Amino acid sequence: MPDNRWFVSYLMSSMASGITNPMIPLFVVVYLHSNVFFVGLASAISSAASVPALIFWGDLSDAISRRKIFVLIGFFGAFASFLPILLVHDIYQYLVILIAFQVLAMASVPVSTIMLLEQNDRSVWPQIISKFSMISGIGSVLGLGLGTTLITFYYSPSDLPYVYIVSSAVYLIAGIMAIRFIREPERALNRNSIQASTFRVIERTRFFPAAVIHYLRLNGRKNGHRLDGNLVFFISMTAFLMFGFQLFFVPYPVMVIDFGANNTLIFLMYMLNSAFSTVSFIFSGRIVDRIGGKTALFLAVTTRIIVFGISSLIPGISSKDLAIISAVSIYSFLGGVWSIISVSQTNYVSKNATQQTRGKAIGLYNSLLGVGQIFGGLVSGEVTTLFGYSIDYLMAAAVITLGIAIIMRIYRGEKLFKARTRPIV
After folding, report:
1. What CA–CA distance (Å, rounded) separates 340 from 318?
2. What count of other Cβ atoms lies within 10 Å of the Cβ of residue 217?
3. Rounded CA gap, 63 and 57, in Å?
4. What is the spatial distance between Cα 410 and Cα 385, in angstroms, rounded to a whole number?
5. Is residue 162 within 8 Å of residue 20, measured between CB atoms?
6. CB of 150 closer than 8 Å to CB of 266
7. Inside any domain, residue 86
8. Average confidence score pLDDT of the chain
9. Is 171 in the same domain as 227?
10. 43-79, pLDDT tens digit by residue?
């Protein structure tokens, strides 16, 4: 029986990540006294840094057929990258820290799922991926709980950098556990031959997935197999949806801070969102199987359209306490919708790709979600700065309305793209 005790090291890594999940808006607005534009910029730049790093580390691990060393680089690199945070005094120094963290921490991401698949029989891959994703989600919730406790009992505005130091210490523990429990797999798998899907249990404002098997290779070789045009367009539209989601989520915590919410409440808001997402992930697969991916995705995205529209009214609420309660409740609720969206989209991609193109399709899906997050972060800060939160939320609702309308046409089999689509490599 495979020894999966090393999962605990990734549990600790997810805890460390969870501790800092709400920190970009808090650090930029509360500690650095900056604004929502730079919150969007920081989210976008950290996301952008992770994408080439993911490709680099994944390709390097495949080239030398080693996994454990990259886990150690990721965990100890994350530990080291946060230590200089005590010296940060402006937004540009903070951006350097975020970039360094993403470049180093991403080393552990592409090898995680490959490693567990190399240690388990193909027949249990779906279950083992689901279990691993759930453990990562639980770790994030625990990390947010720890962060909430720290902020509540040991807090002044000048103490915010120490949240990163605590996260750094947890990454160090994760690295020590990885040394103790991780063994190099006895067999090596070709990433392109793996026909398995990954899920994001928790939606993040930065592109930092818990597990990735496939990704779009910028310099990959053509294998002669083409993706169906409608599948390519479907994947592109999931990125468009993600762009719309980020338009909403990136500036949202800044609005709550502007209302006067304290840091404890911001952490609690993130924790409830992640907890709802993690719990709903348990049932989302069954929901999608029972009512179908098309219906499940339509209902989930339509729910977000309605909620985004309602959220545009929050800035006009005269009572600050009522505005904060409404905002926190909405943000928490939206976490429970994400798992249905994620599972529905991933199932469509997996089922509509051929065996020869499934890895390529999932790689394109992972990559374009990251692109959607990057541009969503950039545009959200600019729109909110120029036009305010309400216009930004209405724009987000309009974007995902257009996106889901096109996706429903794809589900109906309408040929929006010709079959002669050029290969995606």
Report:
1. 34
2. 17
3. 10
4. 35
5. no
6. no
7. yes
8. 86
9. no
10. 999 888 888 888 888 888 888 888 899 999 999 999 9
